[in-house]
Every structure is written in structure tokens, then in C-alpha cells.
Design goal:
This protein has about 120 residues and is α+β, with helices and mostly antiparallel strands. It has 4 helices and 6 strands, in the order ααβαβαββββ. The chain is globular, with a radius of gyration of 14 Å. The N and C termini lie far apart (about 30 Å). The model has no long low-confidence stretch (mean pLDDT about 95).
Length: about 120
């Protein structure tokens, strides 16, 4: 029970940091050896095949996203945690674009308590 509650807290901190553009806080939630997979990343930077690895690359990705989409926000729809991580469902909202439902799984490292892998799904 405590592990799942901790994973929900990580997701809530993630959403708050993202929406307030607190890059250091957001990236600080990730393990140094993290991997992030996103269909938006694959479109924006095809050479990555939709994958970035490590906090430095992740910082650049988030920083670029914040610069490109200054009004981007994620509205929490639901959080579902298990012992290994947490599913976030959120509405991606950007002016002049259709709203998009997103599911993102944050796999939490048992050693560090930080996000080891994040995988984004649009639907």
C-alpha cells in the first residue's frame, strides 16, 4: 500500500512540475539512467526513433517542448498505481490543437525511487 501511494505522489509531482514548467523539479524525478518513449518525440526528432535516454537528453526534450508549446498543459484524468509504477491518464491541451487523451506509464526504480522508464501512448 505504501509503495503504491508513493508512486501516486510521484505522478502528482510530475504533473505539477510539468504544468508549472519547473524543469529542474521535473527532471529531478527521473533516474540518471532513465528512458523516455513518446510518439511526439518520434515525430519531432525522427533520428531518436521516439526514444531518449539519460537525464541530459530528457532535459533537452522537455525544454524544447516548453519552448515550442508555451501554453501546453496536462489535465489529470486518473492515476492507477501498482508496486512497479503508475499509469497517468491526462488530457493534453494546447491552443489551436484538438485535445488529446494520453496514457503514460512511469516505471519507478526500486533502488532510487525515481522514474526509470516512461512510455507515452496517445489515443
Amino acid at each position: 500500500m505504501a509503495e503504491t501511494e508513493a508512486n501516486v505522489r510521484i505522478a502528482k509531482r510530475w504533473l505539477a512540475a510539468f504544468n508549472s514548467r519547473q524543469l529542474d523539479v521535473l527532471v529531478g524525478l527521473y533516474d540518471e539512467k532513465c528512458q523516455h518513449v513518446s510518439p511526439k518525440l518520434k515525430v519531432a526528432k525522427p533520428e531518436t526513433c521516439g526514444i531518449v535516454e539519460g537525464v541530459d537528453a530528457l532535459r533537452r526534450w522537455f525544454n524544447d517542448s516548453f519552448a515550442k508549446y508555451q501554453s501546453l498543459e496536462y489535465l489529470e484524468v486518473g492515476l492507477t498505481a501498482d508496486l512497479k509504477g503508475v499509469w497517468m491518464e491526462y488530457l493534453r491541451r494546447v491552443p489551436n490543437e484538438p485535445d488529446t487523451m494520453v496514457a503514460e506509464y512511469l516505471e519507478i526504480s526500486p533502488e532510487t525511487g525515481k522514474i526509470l522508464k516512461s512510455r507515452v501512448y496517445h489515443g
